[in-house]
Amino acid sequence: MPRSSTILRATLLSVLCVTGAAGLAMAGATEPLVIEFNDGVITPQSLELVAGQKTTLVLRNSGTTAAEFESKRLKQEKVIGPGADFTLTLPALPAGTYEFVEEFHEDQPGARGVIIVK
């Protein structure tokens, strides 16, 4: 076999190995979970997380008024302007129930949510 064919095969094999490894890394990556606030309505109102695993949440305000994520149990409070996102990284949590509220609209039935950690 000519030397150029051997080099070409080795190069292609290297590219395939690197591409395959990158694909595996992406397949194992998890997307952040999104909690959407829309003028007093939270979607979803219930999230399930894995106990002992750090989690990233994106708090997204798609409404026309400011929203305030508040969870006394998580010790988190954040005001999010209309059209804005905020990324919140939660530490590895023990199993339990973690309630939260969109405080600026807490009198509305859709403004309460819960994070269930199992």
Task: Outline the structure in words.
- By secondary structure, the chain is an alpha+beta fold.
- The chain contains one helix and nine strands.
- The strands form two sheets. A five-stranded mixed sheet has the order 3-9-8-5-6, with no helix packed on it.
- The longest helix has 26 residues, at 3-28.
- Residues 4-29 have low confidence and may be disordered.
- Overall pLDDT score: 83
Tell me the major beta sheet. 5 strands, mixed
Structural class: alpha+beta
Number of helices: 1
Largest sheet: spatial strand order: 3-9-8-5-6
DSSP, total strands:
9
Poorly predicted ranges? 4-29
Termini Cα gap = 58 Å
Q: What does the radius of gyration come to?
A: 22 Å
Shape: globular
Oligomer: single chain
Beta strand %: 35-45%
Helix residue percentage: 10-25%
The topology string of helices and strands comes to: HEEEEEEEEE
Key features of this structure:
single chain, 118 residues, alpha+beta, five-stranded mixed β-sheet, four-stranded mixed β-sheet, 1 helix, 9 strands, 22% helix, globular
Short description:
It contains 1 helix and 9 strands.
Question: How is the topology of this model organized?
Answer:
Elements: H1 3-28, E1 33-38, E2 41-43, E3 46-49, E4 55-61, E5 67-71, E6 76-80, E7 85-90, E8 96-102, E9 112-117
Parallel strand pairs: 1-4, 3-9
Antiparallel strand pairs: 1-2, 4-7, 5-6, 5-8, 8-9
